[in-house]
Amino acid sequence: MVALPPGSPLVRPLLDADVLLDAADPAPYLLVPGPFSHDRREMLEASLAGGWAVEAGQPEHARN
Fold first, then answer.
1. Which pLDDT score, from 0 to 100, does residue 17 have?
2. Would you state the pLDDT for residue 63?
3. Fewer Cβ in 10 A, N or C end of the chain?
4. Which residues contact 29 (CB under 8 A, 6 or more apart)?
5. Which residues, other chains included, contact 20 with Cβ-Cβ below 8 Å and sequence gap of 6+?
6. Within 10 A of 2 (CB to CB), how many other CB atoms are there?
7. What is the signed CA dihedral for 53, 59, 30, 6, rounded to 10 degrees?
């Protein structure tokens, strides 16, 4: 899960097809299936168009 600030600039076509987005929620988020790899991080950074996000759901020491 990736938390987004409300009103985040997001370029939806740059997200992988399997990423689920709930931008209408008061606390918007993305669900990114599978491991959060370097490629997934690059895809996310490109789609945020200069915005930011926070990876959630896994302790820092357990991330790859």
1. 93
2. 43
3. C
4. 1, 2, 3, 4, 21, 22, 56
5. 30, 31
6. 20
7. -40
CB 12 within 8 A of CB 44: no
Q: Model's pTM, two decimal places?
A: 0.68
- Give the burial string for 49-58 (b: 16+ CB within 10 Å, else e): eeeebebeee
Closest by Cα among 32, 25, 39 to 55: 32
pLDDT digits (tens, 9 = 90+) for 10-60: 888 888 999 998 877 888 888 889 888 889 888 888 888 766 565 555 544
Beta-carbon count within 10 A of 13 CB:
6
